[in-house]
Amino acid sequence: MWSWPLEAGTSHSVKVGVPTLKGASVTAEIVKHGLGDKIVVFKFKRRKNYARKQGKLFNAADVLVLTTPMWNYNMPAILKAWFDQVLSPGITYEVEKTGPKPLHSIKKVVLLVASGGTYKEDDPADALGRGVAAALKFIGITDISVAWADGQNPLYFDNSETRKQMALEAVQEIAEEVAEMAAEF
Ligand SMILES: Cc1cc2nc3c(=O)[nH]c(=O)nc-3n(C[C@H](O)[C@H](O)[C@H](O)COP(=O)(O)O)c2cc1C
Q1: What is the pTM of this model?
Q2: What distance in angstroms lies between residue 155's CA and the mean position of ligand 1's atoms?
Q3: Ligand 1 atom at minimum distance from 119 CA
Q4: Is 74 inside any structural domain?
């Protein structure tokens, strides 16, 4: 029995207590014990200042290494989301009348890609390489080295393993080039 009801009534009239209804009580009978359906609770925690924090890291770097698969001829949505957060005015560049003024000091970008198919240079189907280059050029970055493990779908390419090894060799060369550059930083 509960003796502190807050309100009581029918569909026609309701009495509301201040704060409880004097003299009113509620009685109930337990007819069954059991567990209800399991409830899944999703908690959404907003990342605080994500763009600003990522921007700080970006602006402090000399070399940026991006590693990504090609999905639907483009970068995966999560990488695009990162670009949209970081390549933003006030984060990595300032908007000026003469054009964007970089806030970063990135000297080189290394782009490591894997794709199922193969793409020729400046292939119109390749929205990934062209998109990354265009977005970085906008903020003043033009030195981009690419190592691309293409033809990684073994159903269509019987040399996919060789292609991967070639990409790894390209990575090695880029790493040596970056190490030489770093001596000048
Ligand atoms: C959702 C999805 C979309 C893909 N789209 C393409 C594509 O447009 N072009 C392509 O060449 N390969 C595409 N691929 C193949 C991947 O690029 C390929 O498997 C690559 O090796 C992925 O790298 P990972 O094996 O390290 O994940 C796609 C793969 C997935 C899962």
Answers
A1: 0.78
A2: 13
A3: 11
A4: yes
